[in-house]
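Checklist before submission:
- one chain only
- standard amino acids only
- sequence pasted in full

Submission:
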Amino acid sequence: MVKLDDQKGTSLIYSGLVCTLIIILASIAIQIRDVSPLNEYISKNISSTKPYATFEEFYPHYLSEHTQQTTRQWHYVGTTLSLLYLLTNPILSIPMIAAGLSAYAIIPYSRHLSTGLAEVILFVIIYFPSSKLLTKSFIKPFLPFLLGYSFSWIGHFAFEHNKPAAFIYPTYSFFGDIYMMYDAIKGQF
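Returned file contents:
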């Protein structure tokens, strides 16, 4: 008979190992995606809704979707609360990095799609089961997203009156939130 503590420890180890393996594989995929044979699978037909190949190309568009100071402030609140939550629950950072790198790795392969649904599905498949195994909770993995998106979307729907860029570019939008906060700290807004 296996003790409950042994089962918890085993699931922590397996989940941590799976996340580590995913981080390694996603990192390799990101580094070699421009090399044959992987580059043959990069989307040649680009959706009109996804013209940006890199975050550097995307970021000016992201800022154009956040022209009002109130919208940016709502984003700062949501991003700050999410980051603080992750700092108080650092175990969630492991599946967050694994899922985020995986979603980032598939961007060139899903640019023919009109939405970011492929990135979101891959993120969810990796992040939520791994987080559940690591935290033994269904609620803890959802909280960073609830905090971040609820405040951000208040800014978009109540003040900016536009659709969040996260619906089309979920990974780049997350990077945009962080980079926009960094720009604000530097005094660029």
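Reviewer check: The helical segments are 4-32, 55-64, 69-88, 93-105, 117-135, 143-160, 170-185.
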